[in-house]
Description:
It is a single chain. This protein is mainly α. The protein is built from 14 helices and no strands.
Amino acid sequence: MKSYKKTFALTAEFAILAAISMFFILPILWIIASALRPSGPLYTYANPLTLQTFFPVSITFDNFIHIFEHLQFGRALFNSLLVAGSTIVISVLICSMAGFGLAKFTFRGKNLFFIIVLITFMVPFESIVIPLFVLIRRLKIDNTYFALILPAAGNGLAIFLFRQFFSEVPTEILEAARIDGASWTRIYRKIILPLSIPAIVTVIVMVFMFQWNSLFWPLIATHSSRFEVVQVAIASHRATEDTSWANLFSSAIAGSMPPIFLFLFLQKYFVRGISGTGLKG
């Protein structure tokens, strides 16, 4: 009797989870199907709902070819990859040094500085947009790659993650290296960075996703199509009077591929990084 109850409970649980997952899967299938079928009205296959709504009868890649050949979506992908990659390199270098200093050094105002770091990623980004824009205008770097990269380089959450990770590194290892005559720079390069690979991967994924999904700031900081990023390119297909759904769906799918591949490639290290930085439940 107990085995039947257990089987029934597992079956019911699976059915409930499957039903819930359909709410997330079906819209994605609709987007993919709409991007792979010939361009036409959005609701041609939407009412009534049939298998053709989610699985197109005739598959074509003309919509993807169109956005790359005529709408310069490849340029937007390149810009986003350049901005995200540059931000990652700068963030890992700066934030790891700051996290190392907060974790292993004692200096005046350390706790106050750490509180300021915590505040930086708790304050909504929209609240600092105006002073940030004024700053880049005075530095004369608006409408450049620097305007897209530098504001995101000093990431407070990344500093916090590195600080939490480095706090778990035994101080005895660093003291032994100092006794052997190693400088702090050498300790940082030879000991700290190799030990912090999981934390680095976590920051890479986090910073990449932040920059890749950025829309509001690129719209403000740049006005030239030369610096158009993926999210701006996708949003440009949506207009008040007319929307090119085929272009919108195909560019959304193409724009989602890099972060998907990145996460699939780094997911093992990402989980280890989360579990080692004090963020696990």
